[in-house]
Specification:
The structure is a single chain. With about 400 residues, the chain is of the alpha/beta class. The chain folds into two domains: about 240 residues, EAL domain (TIM Barrel, Alpha-Beta Barrel), CATH 3.20.20; about 130 residues, PAS domain (Beta-Lactamase). An eight-stranded mixed beta barrel has the order 1-2-4-5-6-7-8-9, surrounded by five helices. Strands 10, 11, 12, 13, 14, 15 and 16 form a seven-stranded antiparallel β-sheet that branches. Helix 3 runs parallel beside helix 5. The radius of gyration is 27 Å and the shape is elongated. The two termini are about 55 Å apart.
Length: about 400
């Protein structure tokens, strides 16, 4: 069996959330096992028993086959090619890229090619140079398996990728919530701020897809739609499926936001009622009769205009209030919700309550937001509320 029969490319579609169309493919290396079944060639390329040069030659062979097949595909779809960052280190001359030579020979528009760089064990300086060269030649660059290694953010800073593909293992964990979910949301915010597009790969269920939408991912890839297969597909094949999922997400999101707005309105009403009560002497036992349980207000306290806390924390738990004086004298002027409130007042655009971003509270280990409201000319009312993860 020759090398072409031993190794060959399959293609997994990548879909646009907005259009529902297949907008590209990732080329993946395949081989036959002892029983003639098609399997991933990943282990072959990772095997230390095989000479590095041989593995590199095989990788380029599969890449050549993928490009030859892609050259026959009409339209504007792209092809993503996996290239090990460690193998880039083996190039004697950065400008002597075999991939660029293949593209020239096959007359493929370079704007339709994405170089997916995987493997974090690469020389950053050399990686930066090869990426710069790829871009000069019209290629886009993606970071593959993002989240799988400790040096990932260093690579983001070094090469400013056009695309980040979230690592399958991180994505699977993230779809179940927890810290991994926060990391994925952080990545999509990073993408939005830097113009970097996010592909969620490993999407295997409707819930995976819906989670990707909550993160703001533009593209999806995974078995929910198709495994890697030998042939390309009609670009509209999954359009109705994705439209149905978008509709489900839309309905769920509207219901969730309506519930959130109702809860926020209840909390805001209590904040204004609390403001009135704090204009004079107040009784914590009387406050316990209010509807604080449904508002999720965990505590409130007061600061002066310089951010210094001038009251104890008034904590609410198990339908009772108690005071905690340990934070008296702390200064919170550096917190965004505090200086934003004062800045709005200076601009005469104060609209009542200012709300912070979500954070983990050190005392309770719960996720909270802080609400800030002008109490009077000298004091500001702050309240911490517990929010969903």
């Amino acid at each position: 069996m020759n090398d072409k029969q031993l190794l060959f490319p399959y293609f997994q579609p990548i879909l646009s959330v907005a259009s529902g169309k297949i907008i590209g493919y990732e080329a993946q290396a395949r081989q036959y096992d002892a029983k003639g079944k098609v399997i991933s060639a990943g282990r072959l390329f990772a095997s230390p028993k095989i000479d590095a040069k041989q593995r590199t030659d095989w990788d380029r062979l599969v890449r050549r086959q993928a490009l030859e097949k892609f050259a026959e595909l009409n339209g504007g779809s792209f092809l993503a090619l996996n290239i090990s960052a460690a193998w880039i280190d083996n190039l004697q001359h950065l400008k002597a890229s075999p991939t660029l030579k293949m593209l020239e020979e096959l007359a493929i528009d370079r704007q339709r090619i994405i170089i997916e760089i995987n493997d974090a064990n690469a020389d950053i300086a050399k990686l930066r140079e090869i990426v710069k060269h790829y871009r000069k030649q019209g290629l886009r660059v993606a970071l593959d398996d993002f989240g799988a290694g400790a040096s990932q953010f260093e690579r983001v800073l070094a090469i400013h990728p056009d695309i980040i593909k979230i690592d399958l293992r991180l994505y699977r964990k993230a779809s179940k919530g927890g810290v991994a979910s926060d990391i994925v949301h952080m990545l999509t915010r990073l993408g939005a701020r830097t113009g970097c597009q996010i592909i969620c790969e490993g999407v295997e269920s409707d819930d995976d897809f819906l989670f990707g939408l909550t993160c703001g991912a533009q593209y999806m890839q995974g078995y929910l739609f198709s495994a890697a297969e030998p042939e390309f597909k009609p670009e509209t094949l999954y359009e109705l499926h994705i439209a149905s999922l978008r509709g489900k997400f839309f309905r769920q999101s509207v219901a969730r936001v309506e519930k959130s707005i109702a809860a926020a309105n209840n909390t805001y009403a209590l904040m204004y009622r609390l403001k009135e009560a704090l204009q004079g002497d107040f009784n914590l036992n009387e406050l316990a009769k209010w509807n604080f349980t449904q508002s999720n207000i965990a505590r409130f306290y007061m600061c002066d205009n310089q951010g210094k806390q001038i009251s104890p924390n008034f904590n609410f738990t198990e339908n009772c209030w108690f005071t905690d004086p340990r934070k008296i004298g702390f200064n919170w002027s550096w917190r965004p919700y505090f200086y934003e409130l004062l800045a709005l007042e200076q601009c005469e655009e104060a609209h009542g309550i200012v709300t912070s971003e979500r954070y983990r509270d050190f005392d309770t280990d719960l996720f909270c937001k802080t609400l800030a409201l002008r109490l009077d000319a000298e004091r500001i009312l702050l309240a911490d509320i517990v929010v969903d993860y």
